[in-house]
Write a structure and sequence with these properties.
Two copies of one chain form a homodimer. Helix content of chain A is 44%, strand content 16%. Chain A contains 14 helices and twelve strands. In chain A, helix 1 packs across helix 3, helix 8 runs parallel beside helix 9 and helix 10 crosses helix 11. The longest helix of chain A is centred in the last third of the chain and has 17 residues. The structure holds a DNA duplex.
Chain lengths: 342, 342
Amino acid sequence: MTYTLEQVAKIAGVSRSTVSRVINQQPHVRPQVQERVWEAIRQVGYQPHAAARSLATSRTHVIGMIIPEAVPTLFTDPFFPLLLRGATEACNSHRYQLMLSLFIPGADRQEIYRRILRSGYLDGAIVASASLDDSLVPNLLRDRIPFVSVGRYPNGRVHYVDADNINGARMAVEHLIRLGHRRIATITGPLDMIAGQDRLSGYRQALEGRGIPVEEELIVEGDFSENGGMAAMQRLLPASPSAVFVASDTMAVGALKALRQAGWRVPQDIALVSFDDIPIASAIEPALTTVRQPIERMGAMAVAVLLSLLEDSSGEESPVQRIVMPTELVIRASCGSALSRS
Amino acid sequence: MTYTLEQVAKIAGVSRSTVSRVINQQPHVRPQVQERVWEAIRQVGYQPHAAARSLATSRTHVIGMIIPEAVPTLFTDPFFPLLLRGATEACNSHRYQLMLSLFIPGADRQEIYRRILRSGYLDGAIVASASLDDSLVPNLLRDRIPFVSVGRYPNGRVHYVDADNINGARMAVEHLIRLGHRRIATITGPLDMIAGQDRLSGYRQALEGRGIPVEEELIVEGDFSENGGMAAMQRLLPASPSAVFVASDTMAVGALKALRQAGWRVPQDIALVSFDDIPIASAIEPALTTVRQPIERMGAMAVAVLLSLLEDSSGEESPVQRIVMPTELVIRASCGSALSRS
DNA sequence: ACACGTTTTGGGAGCGCTCCCAATTTGATT
DNA sequence: AATCAAATTGGGAGCGCTCCCAAAACGTGT
């Protein structure tokens, strides 16, 4: 048996409106009456009907997590799961719900977009790692759907949360420089993603900061996948760098395989530093020196920013929130470093 | 500007009802009128309002993915992400949405349960890896909420989808026996999870099937985590088994560390077989021989079963669906096996 | 041209809630 | 005891859709 407001009201001997006020913690209900209403609610285990509420308030208390591309690594890499976990926990504690949407290549994106974003299912959305030329962000902007991007989005009035990829990469490469390396290569992420671009910028900044010339033959584009990392490393071998900054741990695993095949030892023959600090980074031999980003906190932060947009019913253009969270260099064995010096 | 049925109807020169019929593909609308209506819909980009629909039909077209415990490994291990991915894709293609709920320890489970499951947000739910003594499943049963469990649930009228853990484990252990091992230990999963129990059953069955006595000192309980695997392996060392069946890859990584510390070589001194085939299994040295389960397909199957329950509005007790999906042994280096023989 | 059965169409009611306004009660003040 | 403002309460309207039933239109056979 499922009860309605009206029935609870009858049991408590008050009107619909009064019960509604009690539930929504509105003022103007005598404490004594409140008590009676709560008692009735408890008695029948009343739970307000979400759809009816939404219809009346045009708020659903649901936010969407939108993944525009099923990047191959997206589900084997813990980035996305951790982001999801952070976001879900934050939602839980604010009494919001998280709805998950994958915009899988091949699916009818138009159709999905309309069904999810324009049917009033969601109060707002979190967009994870959109590529820069994806139409999703422009569409959301056009339809005035409140959203937050996880991953920097330089153009337009886009609220975002990101890790400090530039400084993280810079720290990683500076560490290699400090260890005496001069011929430092990099395997980048896909350069149509801002994370790929930013990590490359950090690499350049580190070299330029120390007056080391950037050689284009030492820069190879990868795709954040293990195979991509392996292929990139193979292309890099002829240039014989003394160290490599790999833009993700997953690619570093591939690079390691390529090096092993070619008979190079890490870190003796070549030093490796990567990015992400996923569990495999410490499980593998040699353990990877890598840049850690606070993924779970980024998920929670994205929710917090989105909710602030939703609460702020002033209607008008709130200032754009751009949040960059600090990254941290975790030193292990693959750079052949501090461990041996300290 | 967002349009309603009524407004679209006016544009098409028909009534609300007719537009509703067209959208829901009901009969009794002349083709010529249908065309006019579709034209109007297209013209204004009309999208039905989800909440209004739900209120009228008491169907939301949303199903929930409920994770009862935030098992530590749950988000670093790709099991859950892959399950999610399979489920999400299946939802997409049936025009359903997936809502994600974590029942995080410490959160007010009662409150979350009521808010999510009893407010009419969901048409049904998928429950992932519930522990056997969790109250979630009994509650769902009591509240008559349609749901499917991912993970076998032996008691009661519970629909479930699971991997064939028993046979998978049996195959793994039989492989070790075939390689000549007799003193085979196991590191189990948590035994309050049915997956933990079943993998242990498979281990026992394999031994018993070959007439090898099961020795309790060779059975150690782990918890599916890396640290748990390491600790379990350490407890196992004094019994000096010649092979170990570890109930998950993640635990195998831990076990490997323990063995390395103790100076045992794998597979020369001890053979290892594990379960799951997550990416780390092939990235690590030695690559793990392991049992693969079709996680993504299990997610999709869970959705399919749930939708079949939802469609079947006959109301009454549909026969319980118990689906067990085949597992497969993937032979690599850690068992010191076929590779050297073939 | 009429009657009758069938198909197509329109509109009222209702899903369960919130919001607003008007009616009622309360209580402080004279 | 009467007055008035403020606090409290009740009920109508409406959110946007579906469902049902009755009305209208259509088509066939006489």
